[in-house]
Each structure stands twice: as C-alpha cells, then as structure tokens.
Design brief:
Helices cover 32% and strands 14% of the residues. It is built from nine helices and eight strands. The chain has a six-stranded mixed β-sheet with strand order 2-3-5-4-6-8, with helices on both faces. Strand 2 and strand 3 (132-142) form a beta hairpin. Helix 2 crosses helix 4, helix 4 (178-196) packs across helix 9 (349-365) and helix 7 (276-288) crosses helix 9.
Length: 366
Amino acid sequence: MGWQLAPRHVTSPKRSQQINTKISNSQTMKKAAKLILLVLVVALFTQASNSCIGHKKQSGETDTVTIQKPCGPIFNPDSAITFTAKQCSFGPRIMNSPAHDACREWIVSKFAQYGCTVNQQKTNLTGYDGTQLRATNIIAQFNPKATRRILICAHWDSRPWADNDPDSTNHKKPVLAANDGASGVALMLEIARCLNSDSTFAGGVDFVCFDAEDWGVPTWEKNFIGNQEDTWALGAQYFAKNLPLSVKPEFGILVDMVGGEGAQFYQEGMSLKFAPKIVDKVWNAAHTIGYGSYFPKTTGGMVTDDHLPLNQYAGIPTIDIIAFYPDCEQSSFGPTWHTISDTMEHIDKNVMQAVGQTILQVLFTS
C-alpha cells in the first residue's frame, strides 16, 4: 500500500464532567435523602446490568472517566495471538507458494468451524512484472440469510520482498508478515468465534480475506512503467469488480496491521473522503468503551489499500483501520513494515484487543 502524508492536527482529550450533588444537612431530611439515594443506586445498577453500560477508570488516564461496558461478547486477545502465530507457522504466505496454499486451507477451515458459510473466489491475476498469480479471495459469511450485513476485511497474503528493511541485503527476502497480513485475519477469526458463541447477534457479517494485496511494485524496481498504485490490492480490485455477494453490505471495515507494538489508528484520509460517517461510528465506539488512546480523533495520511476498490468499484462505503506512526523515521506504517522483522516478537495483544473490541462494539450497536 502507498501512503501520502496529509495535514494533521492534535486535539486535546475531553475531560469528563463532574457532577456534584448537594444533600441538605437538615436532620429531618436525612432519612428521606438516604431512601431516595438507595432507590437511585438500585435503579442505576439494574439499568447497567440490563444494558452495555458500566463504570471503570481507563488505564493510563489521569482523570476518572465514565465509559460504557462493551456490548456483546468480549474479544479474547490471546486467541487472536494464537491465530496470528498459526498463520506465521506456515512461513511467508507469498503468492504461488505451498505456504500460501496451506494457509488458505487453514483459514477456510477455521471460519467454517465458527459457523460461517465459506466460499472461495479464485482467479488468476497479473503482477506488476507480468507474473501470473493464483489468487483466492476467501469469503466467510456469518448468518448468510440476514439481509442487513456489514463487511469486515483484511488481506491474507505476505509481501514477497522486504524492500523497506534497513539492511539492503534483505530487500529481496520474503516478509513473514505477522502484523502486515496475519494480524488482520486473526482479528476477523476471533470476531467470528465471538459471534458464533453469542446468541443475541441478529445481523449478518461478511468476512473477506483479500489475496494479492502486497504484490505492489518494490522500491528497488526502477524500470516499471505505469500507475504503481494499480499494482497493489489486486485481489480487492477483482472482488469489487466481480462482487460475489447477493446482498451488498451497508458498510465495510478494513483492518490492516492491527497488532504492531505501539500502534495507534488515526483517521485515514481516503476513509474520511468516502465514508466519513463510518469513521465517526468506529472512532466514537472506541472512545465509548475506553480505547480512545488507540484511536485518536486526528487525521493521519491517505493510503492506497483494499478499501479503495470497495469504495470506487463496488460502492460499499468502507474505511481503513490501519496503523499510523507519525514519529517513526523508517516508515509511517511502523518500524517493521516490509522488513524481515515483521515477526511475532513485535505483536502486541493489547493493540489487537483494542481494535477487536471496538469492531464488536460497532457490530452490536449498529
């Protein structure tokens, strides 16, 4: 994917308002006040028990804030870490490789295990250098009969070349892609597991694993002629132009690089252009359940990623939840992006929990 920096501004976190309640010191009013207070406490507790609302102090914040208890099931980051590691155990999932084929079979089996109807959109795509790529978009539908649907997607292939590695001798080595690929698929699998264990969710979710996202022109290729942006997100381009869904989702959420150490998720520019209401929905959900520090309401850059074909060709308003490191000298995508260091050692389960729980919140409140 490509990244163009856009103007950014920093907003200060909102401080919670404090409400002071005065109770009369009159001796004759004390019993009545205590009774009223008791009734209110019981009512509030009952309301909280029957809804998503709870109270806690968000870790790392200096002020005591009132936030909501997450709606729906609780995202298990340890489970997501296990799914990430399993994909890495196959090795780099580069196109036309045995590791790619083996991982595809595993992903299909896991979505099926969690109650999804799985289809595979197979095609041959052409890489920037003319290489024919055997590609498969994996489509896993949870509650396929539901007519109100939300799309959640990620890419599952690995970058064939570590062309952003600080050591140039590694530039033609494949990337293991723990974060840039595996973390997004793992997050979707854990969400599917959560939905399958919950009996209250009535909507439908289309999980899509896009192939051939990371075959874009490498930095060391000097002879390419054409639009480099079109060499990325090949699987998503094919999907969007040959939409295999009978019901078009109301909106989509792309997750990309959602497990890296120190990751934050700024509001991506193309998402704001095509689907600003969905950006608001997701970032508000994150702040509501206490993950605002991971989702600053600040504009980041503009990314060429799988969400663009969905917006441009399929007409599905789709946003990109993608890591942005504004102070990282090596890359705005973080220090491990397209390097041989994109390994499990640099995956942070707290980051994955923040993103996963936020998406569950969106699903259960949309």
